[in-house]
Design goal:
The chain contains eight helices and nine strands. With 225 residues, it is an alpha/beta fold.
Length: 225
């Protein structure tokens, strides 16, 4: 394994009526791409939120290069695309990205925003309020928002939902690009195995298989979920 950039030890998230993630250990090396599989309710979304620092574990810990992901200096190193876009609907596409640049104190914010609006095919929609964008357009903008700080780690929760063919192709290009570490949750086992070099399968919040993607096939993954 390459130098670890993300580790989780004994990671657990409990709610009043259920345990979403149970005593999970995970070590992710720099530049690796992980696919997280599981049926609905298996804990995929919860895991992405825990790894990103958006949710606080009940027990255990997550470390990004040895630091808590909730620390302000660490958050810039992580790009997140959740199942919901959480865009500011009263602001334009350009304003949404500029807010993100200002939040992280990025230099050349106008240039960064213009570049990313072009890369995700939304240059002609820069002055449109995000509340009127289609689901696919909103998902493209969310991807741009995650990538505008040039993060070392990209965390994605069902990222292909709502994307058209060109948007999905763009996302595939960004996964693992330039040595970036990527972890994405998906219900599509075959696509996940094709994109990732490592896999994690969850069932009821527990690790039922983890390792290199070449060591398991789609049918075997499905049988374990």
């Amino acid at each position: 394994m390459s130098d670890p950039i993300l580790t989780a030890r004994g990671l657990t998230k409990r709610y009043s009526h259920r345990t979403a993630i149970a005593e999970l250990d995970l070590t992710v090396g720099r530049g690796e791409t992980w696919a997280v599989f599981g049926r609905n309710g298996a804990g995929k979304s919860t895991l992405i939120r825990l790894l990103s620092g958006l949710s606080v574990p009940t027990d255990g810990l997550v470390r990004i290069a040895g630091a808590d992901p909730r620390r302000p200096g660490v958050r810039r190193r992580i790009g997140v695309v959740g199942h919901s876009t959480y865009l500011l609907g009263d602001l334009t596409a350009e304003e949404n990205l500029l807010c993100w640049c200002n939040l992280y104190g990025l230099d050349r914010p106008k240039d960064r925003v213009g570049d990313w609006l072009g890369r995700v095919g939304l240059e002609d929609y820069r002055n449109e309020r995000t509340s009127v964008l289609s689901r696919g357009q909103a998902q493209r903008l969310t991807l741009a928002r995650a990538l505008v700080p040039e993060p070392e780690i990209l965390l994605l929760d069902e990222p292909f939902t709502g994307l058209d063919l060109s948007g999905a192709a763009l996302l595939r290009e960004e996964i693992g690009k330039g040595g970036r570490t990527t972890i994405f949750a998906t219900h599509d086992v075959e696509a996940g195995l094709a994109l990732a070099d490592h896999v994690l399968a969850l069932k009821a919040g527990r690790d039922v298989h983890s390792g290199e993607s070449g060591t398991i096939g789609a049918r075997e993954v499905a049988e374990r979920l």
